[in-house]
Amino acid sequence: MGLRVAVIGGGPGGLYFAALAKQLDPGHDITVWERNAPDDTFGFGVVFSDETLGGIEHADPAIHDAMSREFARWDDIDVHYRGEVITSGGHGFAAMSRRRLLQILHERCAQLGVSVHFCAEAPPVEDLQATHDLVVGADGVNSRTRACHAATFQPSLDVRRCRFMWLGTDLVFDAFKFYVVPTPAGVMQIHGYPYDATGGTFIVEMHDEVWQRAGFAELSVETLGPGESDEASIRRIQGLFADVLGGHALHANNSRWSTFTTVRCERWRHGNVVLLGDAAHTAHFSIGSGTKLAMEDALALAACLHENAGVGPGLEAWSGSRTSGSTRTRRRGSSRSTSSRVAVG
Ligand SMILES: Cc1cc2nc3c(=O)[nH]c(=O)nc-3n(C[C@H](O)[C@H](O)[C@H](O)COP(=O)(O)OP(=O)(O)OC[C@H]3O[C@@H](n4cnc5c(N)ncnc54)[C@H](O)[C@@H]3O)c2cc1C
């Protein structure tokens, strides 16, 4: 008999899990709650390594084929520093826009019969636990599911001191680009990579002290409304990095200064509740692996549920397989890392 499954959060992790679990066991009754509208997504491009794509292709060729049609592909990592370019080749990356990825996952969920409620806050975790066989907390870095059972999950949240802003540009980079730029205020860094034929991701990062000295503290507006961007800071960034941009525009989408929080949890399971993706762990954006890890968690969870009789044994197999995989990715600091340890048949 199929399981009744509640998924809190319709990001890449939650949607991919819902689609794979339903594809493997069409008898499951799966509902996803997503507080945003379908086309509300924030951010620009997401990156995958060749190795991750192998797992995604095997798990659901329909999703993989739709993603493949969107990919910008490249091999090199270029570090630009004081007029020199140091290139490391042969990596094998693919990227696409986050908005398109979510659209593909929405379409696949609809085809397979997953119920996705948009603009809908999920019911309280305790209520879902009582009414569902399995509750998947795929609710991102500020996960309420994690907070609700913090005594079991034992999260540690390490808020780092660098400031960054996630922007887009119509400059199509030909590699993973890291520009290390000395400025009068101190060193700033750009992370740039393409996501399709028309644009690239452009992340600006600097230490908090450099951010203060560069005057961003005075410029940035403390209270921006949902969806608003820090336009004054973006104008200054445009001027500071005019050489890198070479006349190309910067695009904003809910773009504002932020700090990175490293999330780790001792456990990812509390009874019939599990955490996946950013809710369970984060990987710094400089290694471009957050989406890949969320989708690999989803793939492994769907496979473990399918291959083990009952929710308990399925979750036991899953929590053992994932913790080591994601830790390895973060330690290696590379996006050329783990594929799921569980094959999907
Ligand atoms: C600057 C920056 C650059 C990045 N670059 C990359 C990159 O190049 N490659 C990469 O792979 N990753 C990148 N990431 C990370 C990536 O965005 C995340 O790791 C990834 O989105 C995690 O997926 P997720 O499904 O776990 O969570 P999310 O994508 O955060 O999705 C969680 C969803 O849950 C919803 N939600 C939360 N609570 C509730 C609730 N109570 N009810 C209903 N809905 C709820 C939210 O609205 C959200 O849509 C970057 C992140 C940042 C900040």
Would you give an account of this structure?
This protein is an alpha/beta fold and 345 residues long. It has a domain of 169 residues: FAD/NAD(P)-binding domain (3-Layer(bba) Sandwich). The protein is built from 13 helices and 17 strands. Strands 5, 6, 10, 11, 12, 13, 14 and 15 form an eight-stranded mixed sheet that branches. It has a six-stranded mixed sheet with strand order 8-2-1-9-17-16, with helices on both faces. A three-stranded antiparallel sheet has the order 3-7-4. The two termini are 19 Å apart. The C terminus is likely disordered.
Quick take:
With 345 residues, the protein is α/β, with parallel strands linked by helices.
Proportion of residues in extended strands: 25-35%
Order of helices and strands: EHEEHHEEEEHEHEHHEEEEHHHHEEEEHH
Overall mean confidence score, pLDDT? 90
Number of helices: 13
Please outline the major beta sheet: 8 strands, mixed
**Would you report the number of β strands?**
17
- How would you describe the oligomerization state of the chains in this entry? single chain
Helix content: 25-40%
> Gap between N and C termini, in Å?
19 Å
The rounded Rg comes to 20 Å
Overall 3D form: globular
CATH architecture of one domain: 3-Layer(bba) Sandwich
CATH class of one domain: Alpha Beta
CATH topology of one domain: FAD/NAD(P)-binding domain
Helix-strand makeup class: alpha/beta
Q: Report low-confidence residues grouped into runs of 5 or more.
A: 330-345
- Associated small molecules: flavin-adenine dinucleotide
CATH homologous superfamily (4th level) name of one domain = FAD/NAD(P)-binding domain
